[in-house]
Amino acid sequence: MQKKWSRLLLFVLLISFVSIVAACSSSESDESDSDADQEDNATEGTDSEEAEGDSDAEVELRILWWGSQDRHDRTLEAIDMYMEENPHVEISPEFTGWDGYWEKMATQAAGGNMPDIVQMDYAYLTEYVGRDLLVDLNPFVEDGTLDLSDVDDIYIDGGRDDGGLFAVNLGANVHGAVYDKELFDEAGVPEPEPGYTYEDLKSFAIELSENLDGAYGIHPFAGVNNLRHYLRQNGVSLFNEEGTALGYEDDQLLIDYLQLTVDMLASGAAAPADVFMDAGSNVEQQPIVNGETAMLLDIYSNQIVAIESAAGRSLELSLSPVLEGGENGHFLKPSQFFSVTTHSEEQEEAAKFISYITNNLEVNEVLNAERGVPIATAVRDHLRDLQDEVGVKMFDFVELAQDYSKPIDPPEPEGATEILSLYENEVEHPIYYGQTTPEEAAVNFREKASEILAKNE
């Protein structure tokens, strides 16, 4: 009996021991689970902190431009400066010459792979905006990402289209004339002052030709750039705002403009075609370089550097003639733009880069107005003090031209390139060679240009 109770007691004790062990095990498991939860929570907190730390994650931009090797070198250095100040940004440059540039960009556009930032030309702006390939930058201006507060409207307007800002001017140029002061002095003819008229031009050009040995007064100017100037002075433009027709209705305007050249060729005031036609558009080969003419009325302000270098002597910039009773004809032409493409996934950073190029003094010391006179006032003033003599001429000429300018005409319509070629081959050159009359040229030009522009209706 006693053994029986002893066994029963042993069994109860065993059951109690197992229960205690199980309870302890459960408690340890709960504590382990709790520790695990705490570790998970800590891990989640770390992940969250890491995610917050990734807010400056690397941004990749691509930039495409055309230009000379000098422009490439300067732009690459500017890009390096931006990346040094913004280490979260990696910029991949793409650059080429003018030849093939637009074919390259058209291929990228067709493939949906355009760079974030592209260098844009005024002649192509309407086309790329119309194809919804460029971003309206107005929102970035409004929120301060793109700072244009130090830029006058006259420098900005060229990048606008139908109220949107689709391109930011990289440098301003002005069309005008260049003359040889030494030849004017030799002929005893006063230098042209701002405000001289077409009649004044005809008068002093004849005097130059008569008084110079082996040189003509002027290089004739029947080209389209001077035609634009003359039309603007008459309150009209080469194309209408819709791009569906010529911008002037009275062909007498073109006739009168061409007659200026015909008269000056006939009087000997202007050089004949065999003196200048072989030079083409190469500014460094124009007759004024070799002292064969005293004045050239078809040059952009930034070209003074190249033409003076080729001439090996000092030359001077001049405004174009004014039309008595007419309007201002000059305008500040964007040399080229930077635009942000709709293919970009980093549009805000792209706008920041354009703002940096526009306003940063140090980076503009590197760029050194190679694309034209800077548009921001502080940058323009800063760089002018760093220029050599010919650079100062360019800066001062752009400043002077503002007083004789009005807003730029709308961007050129589709078909403009074909029309400009038509003008050169069937108006300008035949006038120089005496192969057509102003009346015949005006009628022919309107007929053929109208056919081209009608396709835009």
From TrEMBL:
InterPro entries: Bact_solute-bd_prot1 (IPR050490), SBP (IPR006059)
Keyword set, alphabetical order: Signal
Lipoprotein keyword on record: no
Acidic residues bias spans: 28-56
Signal peptide per UniProt: 1-23
Record's keyword annotation contains Signal: yes
Stretches for region Disordered: 26-56
PANTHER family: ABC TRANSPORTER SUBSTRATE-BINDING PROTEIN YESO-RELATED, ARABINOSE-BINDING PROTEIN-RELATED
Entry protein name: Extracellular solute-binding protein
Protein's organism: Gracilibacillus salitolerans
